[in-house]
């Protein structure tokens, strides 16, 4: 897939969205206000772009 996908994988690992080669499932994300700082759950993918939610209180 090329460099962009490798960077995407590295970002996913750094963000805590992956463990080893496995990506978290949607159900595994923490949507509570007690989520760690910087925890940005993925909400879907449209046209190859990832949409992210952010916490406005951070």
Record the SSE blueprint.
Layout (H helix, E strand, L loop, with lengths): L2 H12 L3 E2 L2 E2 L18 E5 L2 E4 L6
Antiparallel strand pairs: 1-2, 3-4
What does this structure look like?
By secondary structure, this protein is α+β, with helices and mostly antiparallel strands. It has one domain. The chain is 21% helix and 22% strand. The protein is built from 1 helix and 4 strands; from the N terminus they run αββββ. A two-stranded antiparallel sheet has the order 1-2. It has a two-stranded antiparallel ribbon with strand order 3-4. A hairpin with a 2-residue loop joins strand 3 and strand 4. The model has no long low-confidence stretch (mean pLDDT 71).
Describe the structure in brief.
The protein has 58 residues and is α+β, with helices and mostly antiparallel strands.
Keywords:
22% strand, 58 residues, 1 helix, elongated, two-stranded antiparallel ribbon, alpha+beta
């Amino acid at each position: 897939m090329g460099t962009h996908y490798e960077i995407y994988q590295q970002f996913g690992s750094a963000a805590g969205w992956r463990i080893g080669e496995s990506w978290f499932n949607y159900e595994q994300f923490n949507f509570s206000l007690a989520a760690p700082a910087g925890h940005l759950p993925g909400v879907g993918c449209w046209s190859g772009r990832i949409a992210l939610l952010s916490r406005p209180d951070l």
